[in-house]
Design brief:
There is one protein chain. The protein has five helices and two strands. The chain has helices at about 25-35, 40-50, 50-70, 115-125, 150-155; strands at about 135-140, 165. The protein is globular, with a radius of gyration of 17 Å.
Length: about 180
Amino acid sequence: MTTPRTRPRQDSRWPMPKRPSFSARSMYRLHRLLEPNGFYRRLASWLERHPIAYGAFTAAERGVKGKAFGCRMCGQCALPATGYACPMSCPKQLRNGPCGGVAANGDCEVYPGVRCVWLIAYERAEREGREDDLTLLQRPVDQRQAGRSSWVNYWQGRDAGLWTGDGSETPRHPPVGVAR
């Protein structure tokens, strides 16, 4: 008789790897609809001038992205470069790949029984032919942006320099919305 594996309880203060609720394909398609344009730039600018509306918008973003991706509201969204698996849901919040503690079966070192978010990212990116996205180096998180809307930052062009090449080859498909 085998004992069923139980999922570790998550302490909401600490990140826990999360398998996204939606397919990477659907998120790549949705992202194209959300790419910066005149309308979104004006909306972002208006939101920043109206703190109550900005707060409501940010709360909605937190709710949607938290439920779908385990988003931690870093304000500098890396989802387009990680197969829409949030690297901030890694307990160590590593932005450039897994730590050395991933178990042979792919489990997270901190949460045994939970798949490493970076393996989830690779599987999702590979399924969409976008594994080259994972070769981009992500800059360190600017903690001053924590809790801010990454959508507003994206539409305002503030996260244009989040990724840098690794010096090898150019990814076949730059992450959606990333200028090269």
